[in-house]
Amino acid sequence: MRALILVDLQNDFCPGGALAVERGHETIEVAKKLIPQFDIVVATQDWHPPHHKSFAANNPGTKVGDVIELEGLPQVMWPAHCVQGTRGAELHDALPRDAITEVFRKGTDPAIDSYSGFFDNGHRKATGLGEWLVARGVDHVVVLGLATDYCVKFTALDARNLGLDVTLVEDGCRAVNLSPQDEAKAIAEMRAAGVKVTTSDALPQ
Ligand code: VGL
Ligand code: ZN
User: Fold this and answer.
1) Residue 16's domain spans which residues?
2) Is residue 182 situated within a structural domain?
3) Quick check: is 106 catalytic?
4) Cα separation of 23 and 15, whole Å?
5) CA-proximal residue: ligand 1, atom 2 (nearest)
6) What is the pTM for the complete model shown?
């Protein structure tokens, strides 16, 4: 059984948003094209409390792009984004909500970030997505969304670690690229972990 995972297709990661990813909105059209091909569609939603420790504003003396240590893990400082209950945290309006089977929220613990849709960055707590997929007989996930070099990458790698087949839809992803090579590095890392990389047109039906 296959499932489509839409990673963080939220207003704040699209142009005009608080953590806008260049051409991030172009992923929405790809998602809309693929959704009808799946019986199970999962969306992840970055869902931070206002005092989340991944925000530079909540760590005096830091600025966006700095890397600090948080709970013993390296943590990039981000602008405040995807704050619970705000417009920026909502899934993009153009997504057909009735076609999304379930939404999994992440990043709710203020002390630790959660790029992956499966676990926080320290692999301390699960979101429930893994068990939910297994309970439905899912053995293959097709992944797209925002951003390639953070939440998409860690979601795909965790899915591989859970023993799932993983296909990345490259044209359905866009990267933050804090450094210019981050997108290419992320895709190479996913490939090395056994993620198949394809395009939306080449995806087997
Ligand atoms: C993301 C940075 C911070 C993402 C989320 O969705 O890739 N990136 N929070
Ligand atoms: Zn976040």
Assistant:
1) 2-198
2) yes
3) yes
4) 7
5) 150
6) 0.98
Q: What separation in Å is there between the alpha carbon of 83 and the centre of ligand 2?
A: 9
Six-digit token string for 20: 């806008």
Is residue 7 in a domain?
Answer: yes
Q: Please say whether the beta carbons of 42 and 21 come within 8 A.
A: no
Reply yes or no on whether 153 is catalytic.
no
Nearest-angstrom CA–CA distance, 140 and 127 = 18
Tokens of 38: 């799946």
CATH assignment of the domain containing 146: 3.40.50.850
pLDDT in tens, the chain (205 residues): 999 999 999 999 999 999 999 999 999 999 999 999 999 999 999 999 999 999 999 999 999 999 999 999 999 999 999 999 999 999 999 999 999 999 999 999 999 999 999 999 999 999 999 999 999 999 999 999 999 999 999 999 999 999 999 999 999 999 999 999 999 999 999 999 999 999 999 998 7
Q: What's the number of domains the chain is made of?
A: 1
